[in-house]
Design goal:
Order of helices and strands: HEEEEHEHEHEEEHEHEHEHEHH
Strand content: 15-25%
CATH superfamily of the largest domain: Periplasmic binding protein-like II
CATH class of the largest domain: Alpha Beta
Number of domains: 2
Number of strands: 13
Oligomer: single chain
Distance between the termini: 28 Å
Strand order of the largest sheet: 5-1-6-13-7
CATH topology of the largest domain: D-Maltodextrin-Binding Protein, domain 2
Shape: elongated
Radius of gyration: 19 Å
Length: 286
């Protein structure tokens, strides 16, 4: 079975694929804007915010999303997001605390004043922005199609998948995307990705569509039993899949958001962000 470092390398390739040329309207897409890791021209003119009263940042995260945030073999919280939070505190010269809460309590922790920021790979989206504010995105994840290795389907276009059964989790951006661009396909709805994966493995659907990161770890883990592989993609249309991954702060907390954006800018301009990225992902996606 493929090892952890190889999985990380594959993830970096996945992220690299996001910025490669593609086609729009249901075919291979690149998304809008530049890669998240690149410093936008406007960032070069970011003024230093007022940090005088900023003494501590209380971060919360999840503990079950390796290699971003997870518990290591000794039970210590670690991962890309965790080290990023610590690096930001170091750049801003503030005290840092990071604790884990259940996934469904992340935003509630902000609203109830139990935390200052969430660093847990939350996607910037229109709905999320109604509840909280985000920093600039620091990476992007694509949506991907998965098929059985024995499947004769090679090209992924609305025409090629017309009449095919595509599994997707209900009430998700992935479902909305399929409805708009693959309307000639037969969508099979599932309550969870776990049941959708089982349906694909059992041949009850022709393809599965979902988050490329979680699907990649499934494909290269023991649960898939080597059944399947990616086909087509990646798909990164921001209208459906957001503007990337950002750090979340309470709605209206502009001071902390500006401070974290400034910290991200410093990490990138000094090369520390790239060093942190390479610690977890051997291939660069810059």
């Amino acid at each position: 079975m493929i090892g952890y470092r190889q999985i990380c390398a594959l993830f970096a390739v996945l992220l690299l694929a996001v910025v490669m040329p593609g086609q729009l309207n249901g075919q291979e897409q690149t998304g809008e804007g530049e890669p998240a890791a690149e410093v936008p021209e406007t960032a070069l003119r970011i003024p230093k915010p007022d940090l005088q009263d900023l003494e501590q940042i209380r971060f919360v995260t999840d503990n079950d999303y390796p290699p971003f945030n997870y518990l290591d073999e000794e039970g210590e919280l670690t991962g890309f997001n965790v080290d990023l939070a610590r690096a930001l505190c170091d750049e801003l010269s503030v005290e840092c605390s990071i604790r884990t809460v259940p996934w469904n309590r992340l935003l509630a922790s902000l609203e109830e004043g139990e935390a200052d920021a969430v660093v847990a790979s939350l996607r910037v989206s229109e709905n999320a922005l109604k509840k909280a504010d985000f920093t600039d995105s620091y990476y992007h994840t694509p949506a991907r199609f998965v098929a059985l290795k024995s499947s004769p389907i090679k090209a992924v276009t609305p025409e090629m998948l017309a009449g095919k059964k595509i599994g997707v989790v209900s009430k998700t951006a992935h479902e909305a995307y399929l409805r708009d661009f693959f309307d000639a396909s037969s969508l099979v709805h599932f309550d969870s990705m776990t049941t959708a994966k089982t349906a694909l493995r059992d041949g009850k659907v022709d393809m599965l569509f979902g988050d490329g990161v979680s699907l990649m770890f499934w494909l290269n883990g023991s649960d898939s039993n080597g059944c399947c592989e990616f086909r087509g993609g990646p798909f990164t249309e921001s209208k459906y899949f957001g503007e990337g991954i950002g750090i979340v702060v309470r709605k209206g907390n502009r001071k902390l958001r500006d401070a974290l954006n400034y910290g991200l800018f410093l990490l990138r301009s000094e090369g520390r962000f790239e060093e942190l990225h390479l610690r977890y992902f051997p291939l660069s996606f810059f």
